[in-house]
Amino acid sequence: MDLPRPEPDLALVPRPRELSRRPGRFRxxxxxxxxxxxxxxxxxALLRAYLTPATGLPLEHAADGTLVLALDAxxxxxxxxxxxxxxxxxxxxxxxxxxxxxxLHGVQTIRQLLPHRTLSGAPRRATHWExxxxxxxxxxxxxxxxxxxxxxxxxxxxxxxxxxxxLLALHKLNVLQLHLTDDQGWRxxxxxxxxxxxxxxxxxxxxxxxAGSDRFDGRPHGGSYTRAELADLVAYAAERGxxxxxxxxxxxHVRAALAAHPELGNDPGRPLTVxxxxxxxxxxxxxxxxxxxxxxxxxxxxxxxxxSPHIHLxxxxxxxxxxxxxxxxIARAFREGLPGPHQLHSWFLTRIAEHVVGAGRRPVAWxxxxxxxxxxxxxxxxxxxxxxxxxxxxxxxxVYADHRTTYLDYARGPxxxxxxxxxxxxxxxxxxxxxDLAPPDADPRAGxxxxxxxxxxxxEFVATPAHIEYLAFPRLCALAERVWHxxxxxxxxxxxxxxxxxxxxxxxxxxxxxxxxxARTAV
Length: 523
What we know:
523 residues, eight-stranded parallel β-barrel, globular
């Protein structure tokens, strides 16, 4: 069925809370000036950073400027911390918010309202650009609107992460979780322990195919970030209203760390290499005091680089096989009064979470079967929706991350033309848009604990930026809308997305046709 399409310049994603047309259009040209009230300077800088390279317009400040960026604390009861109001007519533009974050979101709406060609940043030969007349009042449904990118399985340079931040910010997603460490690679620089990146940052080859495959590509893979690169990324993201959340996996998914520091394991005399396989590795951290102290030091350096209020500790898929046969682990469980080594998973995360809380941050961990997290932990529920509601009822803040609706490493659709993806199921666009964060029993207390939702992109099969973006978009467009706007309307979303795809095209995002991929990623 052919869907009615909104006017191209109003095909906004995510959908604003309130939008109406006004007569006239505002013309940006060489005479356009900004009027910037105190506190609105970051939004003005962002607007210039986006528009000046594409248009050549300096957009300088003037007391009588016709494009006004204003902070107004009296708007907070209506707009909250992230809402904004935008009015455009032939005489001017007024962007208002109670908080700088709201102004930054409003800048993204202005970008979407402008001709699509301005999104690319490439200089264009034109003397003016026009904004359609609108009245918009907009604010998000949830405060956590996230996307996780796994740079441990396949490393991506910091320059690409900045591009990814811009794509998230355009869709008003405000958290980029970086999965920095895993069995297959350690990307986080730690001054106290340089071997973590020198050794743990490189693997000899990578599996071709799913977990359990005995085929390998024979090509070394490696990479790590510098502190300066990560600090620059954090600042770049903050300027766009995005918080970078670091994830340091423990006590499982640590084979790369054990390759660098075998003394952290349950068999300290056994040398290990960085894992070249996919799946769940049985090698986990030991539970000695020296291991706890090691990772406290690691996290201290992580928190020096990342000022995010939350710090992700991983916590998922931790086999207890090594602990069950380790005399040291069995003795630790006995000393701590635990029923057995299996409970060391919860014990370890609790000890590390205490350190994060003591540093004034909030720990985050993936929810796992039979693992109890301290109530201070924000829970990411990925296995079952029921885990999210159970955690909320126990008093945890919860970020919804159910793999059936938010795992973007699953294929977008069936068919041989789709690039390699995580086997097991298909998560298509409508499935992501069907994301439902309402408690099944309408429990208002549990509902109040849901911070939002997050899309995950694990990269066992994803080596290139083009592949990342093909899997992420337009599915992240759907997720962004569901955590921003309170009402689901699949037909309306599809109609707007049809117009929004022109913006993705202008940005060079391969959202329709699968990109050409190097042979090494083939299954």
